[in-house]
Each structure stands twice: as structure tokens, then as C-alpha cells.
């Protein structure tokens, strides 16, 4: 089982979710916040960012697979047009 815990709607920007017994993983999603970032052309910009944190039982989920999942999730969230045909 993969559980999602979202406290972003309450303005919480980051937190650690505790893995419930019998659950493979739980994802903690915080509120998006404006952040100062470097743009691709080397300039300074402001970008909305959110923190996603996953707690997993490594007896059930291999850490490298979870890391690959998070990379894919980040790409989809950052550029959702890739989901359309």
C-alpha cells in the first residue's frame, strides 16, 4: 500500500509522515512556496516549489526504485504537458 499525506492545504510546507503498520510507503506533500532559483540561462528568478518526502519500508520497496519514481514524479509536476498527446 502507498499512502499519500497532504498538509499543504493547511499551509504546512514540510513534514515527515510516519509509516503506518502494514504500509509499504507514505508520501508527505507540503504547500508550495515561492523560492529564489537560478534559471537555465543563469539569471535569478522566482519559482514555486513544494517539498515531497517519502518514508518507505525497505523490506517492501527498493530505495533505487523509489528514487526513480520521485524523479519521474518531479518531471511530471514540473512539466505536466508531457501527459498530453
UniProtKB/TrEMBL annotation:
- Tell me one Pfam family matched here: 2-oxoacid_dh
Superkingdom of origin organism: Eukaryota
GO annotation terms (biological process): pyruvate decarboxylation to acetyl-CoA
- Residue span, 2-oxoacid dehydrogenase acyltransferase catalytic domain: 1-83
Q: Which GO terms describe its molecular function?
A: dihydrolipoyllysine-residue acetyltransferase activity
Under InterPro entries, the record lists: 2-oxoacid_DH_actylTfrase (IPR001078), CAT-like_dom_sf (IPR023213), E2/Pdx1 (IPR045257)
Q: Mind telling me which GO cellular component terms the entry cites?
A: chloroplast envelope; chloroplast thylakoid; pyruvate dehydrogenase complex
Give the protein's recorded name. Answer: 2-oxoacid dehydrogenase acyltransferase catalytic domain-containing protein
Organism, as annotated: Vanilla planifolia
Amino acid at each position: 500500500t502507498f499512502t499519500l499525506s497532504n498538509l499543504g492545504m493547511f499551509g504546512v510546507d514540510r513534514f515527515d509522515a510516519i509509516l503506518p503498520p502494514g504500509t509499504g510507503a507514505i508520501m508527505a506533500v507540503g504547500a508550495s512556496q515561492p523560492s529564489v532559483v537560478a534559471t537555465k540561462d543563469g539569471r535569478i528568478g522566482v519559482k514555486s516549489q513544494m517539498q515531497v518526502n517519502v518514508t518507505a519500508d525497505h523490506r517492501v520497496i527498493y530505495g533505487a526504485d523509489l528514487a526513480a519514481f520521485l524523479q519521474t514524479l518531479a518531471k511530471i509536476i514540473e512539466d505536466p504537458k508531457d501527459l498530453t498527446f
